[in-house]
Amino acid sequence: MKELDLCALGKCSRFWRELCGSDHIWAGLCKDRWPSLELDDNGVVPEFNPHQLQQQNLLDSNLKGWRGFYVNKHHEMASKADAVIAFLEQSISSESVEVNHYLVAMQNMNAMQFEFRDIVLFFFKENLHVLLNLAGMHYCIAWLGVPAERVMEALYNCKISDRQICVRWWKLGRWMYGFRLRDESISRKASLVDLAMTEEQEVLDVLYRGAIHEVIRVQISAAKPVSSHWSCQSQTAER
Prior knowledge:
Low-confidence stretches: 5-19, 227-239
Strand order of the largest sheet: 1-6-2-5-7
Structural class: alpha+beta
Organism: Artemisia annua
GO biological process, one term: SCF-dependent proteasomal ubiquitin-dependent protein catabolic process
Largest sheet: 5 strands, antiparallel
Distance between the termini: 57 Å
InterPro entries: F-box-like_dom_sf, FBXO4
GO cellular component, one term: SCF ubiquitin ligase complex
Order of helices and strands: HHHHHEHHHHEEEEHHEE
Protein name: F-box domain-containing protein
Number of strands: 7
């Protein structure tokens, strides 16, 4: 049963309120959602630092035990997600983002200890820019090591699997007969589900490495119609 359903059921009667608010149930939900916290099996609720939530008026001091921990931890992760989303949205210029900003966003997710369920809840939304969907999906694969099947299922359930992105990168021109050729521009268009299935492994590799070695620049954007400036071809040479 999902958390919202559990809370709704708890409003039906005193019996259901006591049952749905039991520590046993909420301890299991906490361990399922945040496995990396390595929560104790002895039933002791972990200490929670409420300082940040108090500053933002998000702390629910009326809830105790594991349910209180879950609700306040959820508020904490929602606040952190808002910060990452705001950073990426500010970094998007002319509908594209430079790969260094993209990688900083994912490094922040890792530092903030986002788990798979957090990403699904906060980043797999239809009303968010597709680049935010992409960052969340890529973080799950590259940082959390979530199996592709789980990621794909979440993309389908959240109705964002077919959303498409375009990645364009520039490589230093090759040397030939003592002369360096013009820099090469390569573009790839792919859906989120294609990336989750690693059908576009080259794109994922470029996104993960960023601008390094022979790759001098990487830009990421939402895929646009073929007639637009950002049309994606299999491979084009910079003129």
